[in-house]
C-alpha cells in the first residue's frame, strides 16, 4: 500500500488537514503558549556511580554533568557533540523569554508505514518534542526573534509533513509580526516513512523563506551536525547569514555515495563546516559557547527600528 492505493479524497485530506492546524494569527499572543524548556531526563539521581558520556569524537569518557555544563562540547578535544533542541533553546534565549509557537499538526501515515505512529508517540514521550523541530519566540540579548531548533533526537531531525508545516508556519508568523528568524538545523534529510510527501516539504519551506525574504525579513541560520539531505537542499541553505558549528557535517548525500557516483576521491575535509567556510558557503564558524553573543549582535545590527528608511 502506498500513495497510489489512495483515493483522491484521501489524498486531499493530507493537504487540507495541515492548513486547518494553524489558525489565522492576527495577534502574536494568541498563538503562543508559555513553556518552560527543560530536559526530559532531569531527575534527581540517587547516590551512585557518576554517570559518564563518551565523546562522539575522541571517545573519552566524560562525566555527563561536566559535559552538560560545557554545552555538550567535549572539554578534552573540543568536539561539538549533539545537543537536544530543548537545551539548545535554553542556551540561546534570555532566561524566561521563550514561548513555544502552537502548531499542532495531526499525525498522518500516508504510506501506511508499519509501526510509524507508535514510533512517533514513543519519541514524543521520550524527547518532550511534538516533532523534529521546536518553534517559538524568544529574546536573544534582548532582541525578539522567531527561533526554530531542529532536534536530531527526534528521528534524526528528519523532515516529514509536520516538520515542513512547522517550519513554514514559523516563517509565516515571523513575517506577519516582523520578527527575524533564527534557525538551527540538524537533520538526516527527508523522512522516508512519508515518501514523496516529505520531499514536497523542500519546495514548501523554500517558498515560505522566499516570501519572508521578499517582505524584508532577516533569516539567520546556524548549521549544526549533521545537516544533510532534503533539509540542506532547502531552508537550511537559504539564510541571509549562514553560521555553522565547528566540525559540523554539512552536505546532501554522504561522501561514499558521491565517490561511487562520480568515480573520484573527494578532497580532505569535504562536507565539513570548515571546508564550506573556506569555499564561501558558510559565512562564519561559531563555537557553541559564543553562539548566543554572535547571533545577538547580528540581530542588533539588523534591528528594524534602528535604521528607519
Ligand atoms: Zn572529545
Give a brief rundown of this model.
Helices cover 34% and strands 16% of the residues.
Q: Overview of this structure, please?
A:
This protein has 309 residues and is an alpha/beta fold. The protein has one domain: 2-enoyl-CoA Hydratase, Chain A, domain 1. It is 34% helix and 16% strand. The strands form two sheets. The chain has an eight-stranded mixed β-sheet with strand order 1-4-5-6-7-8-9-10, sandwiched between helices. Strands 2-3 form a two-stranded antiparallel sheet. A hairpin with a 6-residue loop joins strand 2 and strand 3 (61-63). It is globular, with a radius of gyration of 20 Å. The structure holds zinc ion.
Amino acid at each position: 500500500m502506498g500513495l497510489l492505493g489512495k483515493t483522491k479524497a484521501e489524498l486531499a485530506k493530507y493537504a487540507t488537514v495541515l492548513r486547518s492546524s494553524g489558525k489565522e494569527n492576527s495577534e502574536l499572543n494568541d498563538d503562543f503558549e508559555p513553556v518552560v524548556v527543560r530536559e526530559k531526563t532531569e531527575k534527581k539521581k540517587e547516590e551512585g556511580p557518576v554517570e559518564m558520556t563518551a565523546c562522539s569524537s575522541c571517545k573519552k569518557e566524560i562525566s555527563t554533568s561536566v559535559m552538560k555544563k560545557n554545552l555538550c562540547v567535549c572539554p578534552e578535544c573540543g568536539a561539538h557533540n549533539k545537543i537536544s533542541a530543548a537545551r539548545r533553546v535554553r542556551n540561546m534565549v534570555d532566561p524566561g523569554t521563550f514561548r513555544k509557537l502552537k502548531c499542532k499538526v495531526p499525525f498522518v501515515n500516508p504510506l501506511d508505514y508499519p509501526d510509524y505512529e507508535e514510533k512517533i508517540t514513543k519519541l514524543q514521550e521520550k524527547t518532550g518534542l511534538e516533532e523534529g523541530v521546536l518553534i517559538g519566540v524568544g529574546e536573544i540579548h534582548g532582541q525578539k526573534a522567531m527561533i526554530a531548533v531542529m532536534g536530531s533526537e527526534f528521528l534524526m531531525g528528519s523532515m516529514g509533513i509536520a516538520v515542513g508545516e512547522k517550519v513554514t508556519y514559523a516563517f509565516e508568523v515571523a513575517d506577519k509580526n516582523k520578527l527575524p528568524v533564527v534557525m538551527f538545523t540538524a537533520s538526516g534529510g527527508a523522512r522516508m516513512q512519508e515518501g514523496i510527501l516529505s520531499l514536497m516539504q523542500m519546495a514548501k519551506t523554500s517558498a515560505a523563506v522566499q516570501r519572508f525574504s521578499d517582505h524584508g525579513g532577516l533569516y539567520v541560520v546556524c548549521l549544526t551536525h549533521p545537516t544533510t539531505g532534503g533539509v540542506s537542499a532547502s531552508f537550511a541553505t537559504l539564510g541571509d547569514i549562514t553560521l555553522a558549528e565547528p566540525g559540523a557535517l554539512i552536505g546532501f548525500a554522504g561522501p561514499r555515495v558521491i565517490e561511487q557516483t562520480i568515480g573520484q576521491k573527494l578532497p580532505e575535509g569535504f562536507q565539513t563546516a570548515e571546508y564550506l567556510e573556506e569555499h564561501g558557503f558558510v559565512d562564519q564558524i561559531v563555537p557553541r559557547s559564543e553562539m548566543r553573543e554572535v547571533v545577538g549582535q547580528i540581530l542588533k545590527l539588523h534591528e528594524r527600528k534602528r535604521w528607519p528608511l
